[in-house]
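Weekly puzzle thread! Below is a chain. First person to post its structure in token form gets bragging rights.
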Amino acid sequence: MNDQDCKDTARQVISSVLENAAFIFADPMEAGSEPQLDSWQADGVALEFKGSAGGAMHMWAGSGFSRYAAANMLGVEEDDENASRKGLDALKEILNMIVGNLLTEVYGSEPVYDLSIPRTLDKQELATDYGDPQAVWLEAEGNQVLFVLRTAQA
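Winning reply:
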């Protein structure tokens, strides 16, 4: 699978998981409409995987998205205190589902992968992810969301 096919597959899987798991509808962002790196207040989470291919996926989203996702997943209002407290947990759970579905879509159901526990990213890592040529930018419910997948053959 070439880089563009992988990026297209990732975009489709991410959109599907967001819609089915968190009732969030996402669309590709227009080139040049990304938020400014120095002013984007985003939270990041990462999940590593090992198997026939190893790598990691990073997800970055603003707190508005995190709160919205948590509210949808918990079945509460967006301004509920639980939605604010559970925002990062919601991002981690969404990322876990995305990686599992994406690995199956790209590599099939035969290979077995070990997934790490999702972790919070340090804000300094955003600069590297922001400029990644394989970055998938989506607009979801008025929020910008960034996904970066890095793989290496085992």
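Puzzle host: Confirmed. Bonus trivia for everyone else. Residues 3-28+42-153 form a domain with the Chemotaxis protein chec fold (CATH 3.40.1550.10).
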